[in-house]
Design a protein that fits this description.
Layout (H helix, E strand, L loop, with lengths): L1 H26 L5 H5 L3 H4 L4 E10 L7 E5 L4 E5 H6 L9 H7 L4 E10 L6 E12 L6 E2 L2 H4 L8 E13 L6 E7 L2 E7 L14 E12 L5 E8 L5 E5 L34 E5 L4 E4 L6 E3 L8
Parallel strand pairs: 6-7, 9-11
Antiparallel strand pairs: 1-2, 1-4, 2-3, 4-5, 7-8, 7-10, 8-9, 10-11, 10-12, 13-14, 14-15
Amino acid sequence: MMHFEGVTRLLLLLALIFEVRLRAEETVPIASVPEVRRLSPERAAEGLPVRLKGVVTWHPEGAFYALVVDDGKEGIYCDVRMAMERGLLPERYNVDVLAKTVNEGVEVEIEGVTDRGGYAPIVLPTAIRAIGSADLPAPKTVPFLNLFSGAMDCQRVVVEGVVRAAHREKSTRAVTLDVGTFYGSFQFRLLEPNDLAAATLVNAKVRVAGCLLPLFNARTEMIGVTVQTNRLSDLMVLEAGPEDPFAAQEIVSTGLRPFSAAGVELHRQKVRGVVTAQTSWELFDASAGHEGHPGVLRNRRPF
């Protein structure tokens, strides 16, 4: 009987030690971005403590509702707005001051808790401290298809493509480019206020670098990506587009993407035809009885 009681006490003691160790591990802040990013949604939702040190690789220009921090291994989204809404970030943090001092290239220390986020695990900051400046991590060259895998969420990437369209936002002066590649297209946003003549970039071959942010739906499914930066130097023109977009050689409208040993043509192509229908966002061209193709046509007279 005494032996049995001794074994029971030993087992209880071991169980107690194991429980204390587990609790201690849970209270030790996570100090690695990869460790946070690999949490399951359920585990991240538990609000595990985090203490990270890294360089800011993105934040929205003119506002401070979020930032991306890279610890030298990977980058992660830190949601300042959500932290404030939940009362996690003290009122002493003036977002206007943070917006002026915490920019790309600033090294910071972030304390906070994990959250499942809208697409991937994120950090809700409880403290933000700028501690100096640091070089941005070199952007990663990845195959275009990998951009949509989800693995590159909040990572700095570099991609080449041809500008299909360009426009400037009146309120923020940010420039958005629709960039096409052989496998699809994505948006590049230059958030820094600038005097860049965006329209001159149409049909140019460019190399862009920045922080990849996913576009996702209510079911947390990725439906697209955008590459964003605050630095004009992250946009490089490799081949300028023609001044006259109609200088391209005219093709027969039997097919805009015929076979070519060189691959799909990414630059603009010119077709001639009769407008048979018009919507608020595009014109349709039907030529010589062939199937119509959506396109942008030169108007000889106002519609």
